[in-house]
Amino acid sequence: MKIKVPDMVCGGCVDIITQAIATLDSEANVTADLSTKILEIQTTKELATVQGAIEQAGYKVETP
Ligand SMILES: [Cu+2]
């Protein structure tokens, strides 16, 4: 799935979000592109669940 996180501006943000997703699904694979603010996430979890975890971590999400 792809999720856009407009406030993701540095590696620290990516770490926080990656950690939040790892807590949800330890098998998840997260690739972040800071130029487009888009996360590419391989996970068995549902989109809404992943979005919720990112929001819990303090970031607003958009679906590109
Ligand atoms: Cu940051």
Give your account of this protein's structure.
The chain is an alpha+beta fold and 64 residues long. The protein has a single domain (2-56), classed as Alpha-Beta Plaits (2-Layer Sandwich), CATH 3.30.70. The chain has two helices and three strands. It has a three-stranded antiparallel β-sheet with strand order 1-3-2, with helices on one face. Strand 2 (29-33) and strand 3 form a beta hairpin. It is globular and about 25 Å long. The N and C termini lie close together (10 Å). 17% of the residues are buried. The model has no long low-confidence stretch (mean pLDDT 96).
Helix content: 25-40%
Name the poorly predicted regions: none
**Bound ions, cofactors and other small molecules, one mention each:** copper (II) ion
Q: Structural class per helix/strand content?
A: alpha+beta
CATH architecture term: 2-Layer Sandwich
In order across it, which strands form the biggest sheet? 1-3-2
Q: Can you tell me the number of structural domains? A: 1
Count of DSSP H/I helices: 2
**CATH topology value:** Alpha-Beta Plaits
The secondary-structure element order is EHEEH
Quick one: how many beta strands? 3
How would you characterize the largest beta sheet?
Answer: 3 strands, antiparallel
Kindly provide the radius of gyration, computed on alpha-carbon positions and rounded to a whole number of angstroms: 10 Å
CATH class: Alpha Beta
Distance between the termini: 10 Å
Shape: globular
